[in-house]
Amino acid sequence: MKRFLFVFFLLSSLFAADKILATIGATNITEADVKAYVDTLPAQYTQFYSTAEGQREILNRLVNNKLLAIEAKAQGYEKNPEVLKILENVKEDIMTDRYIRNSVADITVNDTEVSKYYEDNKAKFVQPEAVRASHILVDTEEELKTAQAELGKGRDFSDVAKEFSTDPGSAAQGGDLGFFTKGQMVEPFEQAAFALKKGETTKSAVKTQFGWHIIKATDRRAETQRPLNEIRQDIREALLQQKQTEKYNQLVETAKKKYPVNLK
């Protein structure tokens, strides 16, 4: 059956709120429809699709989808059993989601609760002692002697690391490993690094399963207690999630009492 479809693009109105961007018969596609589609996209795509060019592309997609939806309806897919089953499942999911959201909507966490949790759990918010170190990693004692000789000449540690270190992850950065805390490195390396003062280099090379290391401590950071103001929002969000989870479990248990479950 022939049907007359009139598609009229209003591209010049892409940035006007709720403006009609296209019409397909009696159906309108608005700027709000385009924005809603963009909001569903992964974050890495939103920048492009927020531009005029990107929104035009989205508009074309929406038009094409709507055209095919109209045709699918004309061919009876609206009453297709498989479609109806999927719609019923989606409806159930949406109802459940809205029920949960509405049930937890009034849950809040106040400043007193945040402060109490912080005081009761201060040990959780300690920033442990850390060392920033650079190293020169070599495979053999001969290579080790060569690197040590270069350092003995007064060459910069970073330059020697770039030239002689076999560590693919740090050589290009002059051997820099960044800050690390205890437990992050293999034990012999860790012990040697944490024994150094800022600016010191190991007098003897350290042997690990990776090879020979010459280690230099470039910075140190003492153990510190993170202040409440720095982590207040993190604590609030964690407590809120905890309360919401408790409410969810409460809803499930209440429902189980009303509607007995028999697992088979």
UniProtKB/TrEMBL annotation:
Top-level taxonomic group: Bacteria
EC numbers, comma separated: 5.2.1.8
InterPro entries: PPIase_dom_sf (IPR046357), PPIase_PpiC (IPR000297), PPIase_PpiC_CS (IPR023058), PrsA_foldase (IPR050245), Trigger_fact/SurA_dom_sf (IPR027304)
Ranges where the PpiC domain occurs: 128-219
PROSITE patterns: PPIC_PPIASE_1, PPIC_PPIASE_2
Pfam families: Rotamase_3 (PF13616)
Reactions it catalyzes: [protein]-peptidylproline (omega=180) = [protein]-peptidylproline (omega=0)
Alphabetized UniProt keyword annotations: Isomerase, Rotamase, Signal
GO molecular function: peptidyl-prolyl cis-trans isomerase activity
Record has tRNA-binding as a keyword: no
Endpoints of the signal sequence: 1-16
Protein name: peptidylprolyl isomerase
Organism of derivation: Termititenax aidoneus
Protein encoded by which gene: ppiC
